[in-house]
Design goal:
The structure holds two protein chains of two kinds. Chain A is an alpha+beta fold. Chain A contains six helices and five strands, in the order ββαβββααααα. Chain A has two domains: about 80 residues, Ubiquitin-like (UB roll) (Roll), CATH 3.10.20; about 70 residues, Orthogonal Bundle (DNA polymerase, domain 1). A five-stranded mixed sheet of chain A has the order 2-1-5-3-4, sandwiched between helices. In chain A, β3 and β4 form a beta hairpin. Chain B is α+β, with helices and mostly antiparallel strands. Helix content of chain B is about 35%, strand content about 25%. Chain B contains twelve helices and 14 strands. In chain B, α5 packs antiparallel against α8 and α10 runs antiparallel to α11. Chain B is globular, with a radius of gyration of 19 Å. Classes of the chains: A alpha+beta, B alpha+beta. At the A-B interface, β4 and α3 of A face α2 and α6 of B.
């Protein structure tokens, strides 16, 4: 079937099989490999993208269902400079291995669009469909709260790196001085 | 995994959809939001020849009022149910239960009608449809008919819809009088299915419960009404009376045993959660 969609600002028209999942179309059809495939069972949220502005698990949508839609992946989020949520994830160490990060960031962008001033609890519930196996979520939640603050014009929250004591070169056991 | 191959049609009117389904034959499947069907296809647990996608049938989407009833288009998404002022005002129990379905991304695509037609007894919304005495409007080649929720859920993943019928809308009578409600869902981890869920709506008169409606999630091969509790609750005016009535919540049910819990554990949960749900719905602190 002919499928036409705008992905990260570029319009593509392609022939796809009806059974092609949106995630496979993005990665294999269009080469937009910034969207990872995680669990492939709708659980982990790492393949989350925005379809017409709504967060969607792209493994649970057929490409043909997105015919005519506008899709934003992690690769289309920065506009000359990083999106505030991307920046906050760096500042607050909101990632470790990075596999969940594209989905986590897009879920957070969707959450902040609906609720620009979320409580910590609302952030945790808002990211319910996105799993992270590295961070324990603490810094992800901090990142989202910081991005929310910055996007409301109140500036980012103090970052993890700024928090580190100035003088402290941490002592590393066995390192020669 | 990659789903098995199928043909795909995307009608834009309900009449076209009914015709497409009829033409596609008995191995066709209706695609609503796809949040259950697409995972099933990916796991190759189903092999439909044709998918009839209702995603472009605008007339199946949206919420309206018809005298004392709210009419919810079958393709109305969970995220739209959550934000709809009519549903918030007249069927708050549905909003409360919908907020517990899966996660925000799934709620952006999943639909109210799709969830009911899928008829998974672990799904949260069927128990609500039962408790609120909903009516389901089906459209087929022979025309339109209305099915009461109490007759709609036939067995595990099986409804009273015939293979050539499409669920078009759900009619929910507005609750008249002084009703309170609560959906109590018990699951071990985020975004999980309910091990047991209890949907309770309670009408009070002069400090005592005058009428109660209770639907149970995952306490059998279909969602069930806890009728023994409903009758035992009439006249209850304190927490002790509510707890006494809730003791019969599992009577007459056949809950499943699986990795999440054995049948006797589910029976225990049903009693505890019914007590909590009714107490909260009736404004009695527990």
């Amino acid at each position: 079937m002919r499928v036409r969609m705008k992905v990260d600002g570029v319009t593509y028209e392609d022939e796809v099989e009806p059974r092609t999942l949106l995630t496979h179309h993005l990665r294999d059809g269009l080469g937009r490999v910034g969207t990872p495939v995680g669990c492939d069972t709708s659980n982990c949220g790492s393949c989350t993208v925005l379809v017409d502005g709504d967060s969607v698990k792209s493994c649970s949508l057929l490409a043909v269902q997105a015919d005519g839609a506008e899709v934003t992946t992690i690769q289309g989020l920065a506009d000359g400079e990083w999106h505030p949520v991307q920046k906050a994830f760096q500042e607050h160490h909101g990632l470790q291995c990075g596999y969940c990060t594209p989905g986590m960031i897009l879920a957070a962008v969707d959450l902040l669009k609906r609720n620009p001033d979320p409580s910590e609890d609302e952030v945790r519930h808002g990211l319910e469909g996105n799993l992270c196996r590295c961070t324990g979520y603490q810094n992800i939640v901090k990142s989202v709260l910081s991005a929310a603050s910055e996007m409301r014009g109140q500036g980012p929250l103090p970052g993890s790196f700024q928090d580190a004591p100035d003088a402290a070169e941490p002592a590393i056991a066995g390192a020669s001085s | 995994m990659i789903p098995p191959a199928f043909d795909y049609v995307a009608p834009t009117t309900l009449a076209e959809a009914v015709a497409a389904l009829r033409e596609a034959g008995e191995d066709a499947k209706i695609l609503a939001g796809g949040q259950s069907l697409i995972p099933v296809l990916r796991l190759r647990l189903a092999f439909p020849t044709v998918l009839v996608d209702l995603g472009r049938v605008d007339e199946l989407r949206g919420v309206s009022e018809d005298a004392g009833t709210i009419v919810i288009g079958a393709m109305t998404r969970h995220s739209e149910v959550l934000e709809d002022p009519l549903i918030q005002q007249h069927a708050g129990l549905l909003v409360e239960a919908t907020a517990t379905v899966a996660d925000p991304a799934v709620r952006h695509r999943g639909t109210f009608g799709g969830a009911l037609a899928h008829a998974d007894p672990a799904g949260d919304l069927a128990a609500v449809a039962l408790a609120l005495d909903a009516e389901l409007v089906a459209e087929g080649p022979g025309g339109r008919r209305t099915i009461r929720a109490s007759e709609f859920f036939v067995d595990y993943l099986e409804t009273a819809l015939s293979p050539d019928e499409i669920l078009a809308a759900v009619r929910i009578p507005k609750l008249e009088g002084s009703w309170g409600y609560r959906y109590e869902k018990f699951s071990r981890v985020a975004q999980a299915w309910a091990i047991v869920g209890v949907a309770a709506a309670v009408r009070k008169e002069g400090g005592a419960i005058a009428e109660a409606r209770i639907g149970l999630t995952n306490m059998g091969s279909t969602p069930v009404r806890a009728t023994p509790v409903e009758s035992a609750l009439v006249g209850a005016s304190d927490l002790a009376a509510v707890q006494a009535a809730a003791a019969s919540a599992a009577d007459g049910t056949s809950p499943p045993s699986d990795l999440s819990g054995q049948a006797d554990y589910r029976a225990h949960l049903a009693r505890v959660l019914t007590g909590r749900a009714v107490a909260a719905a009736a404004g009695m602190s527990s």
